[in-house]
C-alpha cells in the first residue's frame, strides 16, 4: 500500500547562503527545460528539496596588501580534496607554483583555485609552451585547462549541497567576489616525449584586474607504464543508439584507463522449442571493430537474460521442462561466434546479484543460479560469472559459487571475505565491483584485495541537454532522489563533461599501472627494498577499500584529510623511484653513478606530506544536547491518547536497543537516552538520544498497543542538528516474527518508513493508521501493536522525542 506521510514543520528555517542559492539558480538556467526550475521551487516549498550549506572548516585567510591590490588570492590544493564555493586556503597552500610528475602518454591532473576579493570579469587561464632538456618542448596543447563548475547534487534523500561537480572547458569567466573557483589542468605528454623536467607559465588574467603567473613544472619520467593484460577496468554501460556518441563515449572510457565494458546480448530474431535460433550479431561486430581500434581489449561482460526471456516467450516455464534445448542452442551460437572472433572475449553473468528474498526481476536465488550454471556448462568453453554481494543471503552460503564459475565478482568488503578467499584458493579469477568512484578502489585497493577486475555502476544515466538537472527528469515526482552527483560523467548531445571523481578513478588505474610496472621489473630482479616498500604500502592501503586509509607514523600522517590524501602521490613517487632503481641495477649502475636515472630524479621532491591542517582550522562546535532549543508546545486534540511523554523515569523501562545482548531493556552505558528539560513539546521533559558506538537504534516498548479506533499516530521529533536529517520509523505488531528478542522483526513483516526529511527544530511526523501494513502487504493488527523504532540518519544523529500520541 501507499502510506500517507504528513510532515508538519512547526518553525520555518532558511537554508543555504546567498552563494548557494545563486549557484543553484545558475545551474537551473543552464537547462533546456525551464519547467524544471519551477518544479524545484515547488519542491523547496513542500520541504522536499533542502539546499544545505557547505561548512568550511578553515577560517578565512588575512590577505596581504599585494593580494588586496590584485583583487584575489591564488592557492593550490591536492585535486583529490574537493574545493567548494566557500573554501578558504590553508596558509601553506598559498604559493605560486604547480608541479607534477608523469610518464609519456599518461594523463596527470593538477589544480589551483582563486578566492576573489572583488568581482572579477573575463577571467582567462592560459598555459605557455613548456621548455625541457636539450631544447625539448612540451607544447601548450599538451595541457588541457578547465574550470570546475559547482552544482547542487544529492547528498541524501531530499537533500542537496552545491559542490564541485563538472570539469568544463571555458574561454573566460566572470567570478563574483567571495566565490572560490577551482581550475583543473590535465597534462598529457606525447608518447615520444623526451624525459626530464619541463617548465612553463600558467597565466590567470582577469579583464579588470592585474594578471598573475604560476610556474608549472612537469617532470617526465624515463619509462612508460605497462598495462596488465589480465586486468579488467570497466564501467557498467548502456550503449547509445547513435554511432558517433558510441565512439565518443568508448574513446572517453579508454582515455580514462578502462579497457572493457558491459555489452548487451546479441538480438535473438527467432527461436523454436527444438533449438532452431536466428541471432543477429551485427551489434557485437560493430563493437568488436570499435574496441579493436580504440584498444579496449579486456574481457567484456554480457548476460544470459535475453536467452532466458526468449525461451519463456515460447510459453516454456523458466528452468522447467523443455527449457534446456532452446536455451542451450542460443548459448552455442554465442560460443560459435566468439570462437570465430577470438579477439573479442566475453564472460556471461548469471543474472545479477543472487539473493534468497526480496527478489527483483533481475535477481535469482542460489538454486536457480546453480541451475543456470549447469546449463551453461553444457556449452564447453563458455565463460561464466556470478556476482553475489556477499558470502551469504538469508543464511544461505554463497561461497560455493567460487568453485562453479570462471570469474567470481563481488564487493571488496569484509562481508565477502569467504568468497574472496575461496576464489583465490580455487585458482579462479576474482573481480570486485561497486567499490566507489574514487582513487583508492581503482588502484591500490584492487591490488590489496588481489582482484583482476574493478567495475563500477554506472558510466552515466540519461544524457541530453538537461544533464545538470538536480532532480530526476522523468516521473511524477522525484521523491527526494538526485539526478546530479551520481554518475562519473554528464553526457550532452555533443560532448562529455567529466566529474572530479571520474578523474580520481583514472588516477587509481594509473596507480595500478605503476604497481604493475614495478612488479614486472621486480619479478626479473628481486630487490629487498621493493619488498619492504610493498609491505609498507600494504599497511597503509586497506584490503577492502570501504575501510578507508589507515594512518601511520612512517608517512607522518594524522587523521587529517589533506594528509591522508597525500598518501597516494607519496607512494606513487616512491614506486617511480623504485622502478628507476631497478632499471639502474639491470644496467649495472649504482644509485650514485652520474649516469644513473635514479640519481637524476631522486633530487625532485614529490609526494610530500603536508602540514597538519587540523591545527590551522580547529574550531569547537557545542554538542547538540548543550545547544539551547526553544520549541512550540503541542496542544492535544480532544480524545488523544499519549503513549509517551517522558515525564518520569518510568519511561526508561519502555526503551530498548538492538545491541544490548542479555542486558536489561535499558542500560545508560549502552544506550545513553536521558530525560532533559530541553526541547519539551508537552509537559516539562523530552527524551534525548545521543548515539554511541555500542548502542543500536532506540526502540519504544511496553506501551498501550491497542490503537484500534484511532486515525493517526503523531510524533514530535526535535532535530538539534544544524542541518536536515533523514528519519526512519518502524512499527511492529504481535504477528511480526522476531529473530531475536531485541530485534524489530523481519523487514517485510513490519511497517517501515525510511528517508523522510526532518528539518532542524521541531517537526511533527504524522502516520495515517487506516490500512497500516507491512512491506509484504499484510495489514498490521492495530489492536496488538508491539514496538516502535525511531532514528535519524540511521541512528547516527542525536535527536529529541516528545508527545508520542494517538489522535482521532
Description:
It is a single chain. The protein is of the alpha+beta class. Helix content is 23%, strand content 26%. It is built from 17 helices and 39 strands. It has an 8-stranded parallel beta sheet with strand order 16-15-26-25-24-21-20-19. Strands 1, 29, 31, 32, 34, 37 and 39 form a 7-stranded antiparallel beta sheet that branches. The protein has a 6-stranded mixed beta sheet with strand order 2-10-9-12-5-3, with helices on both faces.
Q: Uncertain segments of ≥5 residues (pLDDT<50)? A: 1-17, 552-558, 615-627
Structural class: alpha+beta
What is the terminal separation in angstroms? 21 Å
Radius of gyration: 30 Å
Overall 3D form: globular
Q: How many helix segments?
A: 17
What proportion of the residues is helical, as a percent range?
Answer: 10-25%
Largest sheet: 8 strands, parallel
Strand order of the largest sheet: 16-15-26-25-24-21-20-19
The total beta strand count reads: 39
Strand content: 25-35%
Return the average pLDDT rounded to an integer: 90
Give descriptors for this structure.
disordered N terminus, eight-stranded parallel sheet, single chain, 26% strand, 808 residues, seven-stranded antiparallel sheet, alpha+beta, 17 helices
Can I get a quick summary?
This protein has 808 residues and is an alpha+beta fold.
